[in-house]
Every structure is written in C-alpha cells, then in structure tokens.
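Researcher: Please predict.
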Amino acid sequence: MDTIKRWMKNGASFLEDSILLSSLRQGVVLAIPFLMAGSIALVLNSFPVSGYQAFLDGFLGEGSGTCSSDLQLHLERPVPAAARDDQL
C-alpha cells in the first residue's frame, strides 16, 4: 500500500510540474468563460417557446431564432458536378 501511495505522489508531482500540462490546464481554464457565454447564447437563441421565437423574429429579423433554416437550405442545395469531380 505504501508503494502505491509513493507511486501516486511521484506521478502527481510529475503532472503538476510539467510545463506542457500546466499550459494546457491554464488554456482550458481561460476558455471556460467563453464556452459558458456561447452556451448561454445558444440556449437563448433556440429557446423552444413560440412567443419568444416570434419576438426574436420581429426584433432581430426573420429566421434569427434558429439556424436550422439556414442549415436546411445549405444541405438541400445541389453541388455542381464539376465541384464534385474536383474533390475526388
């Protein structure tokens, strides 16, 4: 049991002292506020209440409540044959 504790302590100190892992940890911590703001914006933009969606359409313009209509148009648009052949 003592060997496992010593091994865990050495592994933890290695991970704590590693410059690469420390910079990754700091980067993730700094990104959290932006991720939270983006998540809240997505929830507010696609809140599933028809009155709220009507308000968004009137306030921000038609189709601003969700991006599904833009995605639907993009997916249904045919790709020209020349563009398909170039990608192969």
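Model: The longest helix spans residues 19-45.
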